[in-house]
Amino acid sequence: MLQIPNPDGLADAFAAFPEDNDNGPYPGVLMYPDGFGIRPVLRDLAGELAAHGYCVLVPNFLYRHGPSPVVDLPEHIGEAARPAIMERLMPLIMAHTAEQTLSDSAAYLDFLTARPEVADGPVAVTGYCIGGLLATRTAVAHPGRVAALAAFHAPVGAAGPDTLQRLTARAHFGHAESDLTPETLGELNQILDDAGVDHTSEIYPGTVHGFTMSDTDAFDSEGLHRHWDRLLPLLAGTLTPKD
After folding, report:
1. 0.90 surpassed by pTM
2. CATH, domain range 2-239
3. Closest C-alpha to 18, from 59, 58, 46
């Protein structure tokens, strides 16, 4: 666990690095968690990505409300527990402004790229659920620093057409089948196509919101596998990890 200096205080964060640091430095990846925050499943995802040759930083974007997780979580977030958890979390998530995202993202990127384990050059940002929206806004705000963007079961449309049209990073959006219709997907992709964004954007069949998170009822193993099948080639094609 690490502490990242931010305009409004210290953000706690988790970092995962390749085991063989002697072959570094390695490309950096900023990974935004879902609204439930940093917990074992996020550490596992970061560790898996690090094993492929990346230095991964997972910040607590809700640090203004305390260390992650900012609300108590059971080991498994089932449907019975979810309403009470979301009742506490949603006001905090909704209070997180686009302006806060922009100021925080600069601090996160500065911290990540200053690490001796991280190679010079652009990084990637990825995120889950609301973290995917934060990742999208981060990529748009830092076009010279972010070469790749991936967002999963994320409300990326909430960024708005004006923001999406300024995206310069190569992107992948993996949508839950329960989150949007094929028509809405077509509208989103048309915005990206018209802006000339290098992207793939698809609905993962049979998935519901949160499908990558193995500690929830939404988890879908095939959806998680597809997520890796899309994420790893995206990073390999933009960040050139070391063997």
Report:
1. yes
2. 3.40.50.1820
3. 46
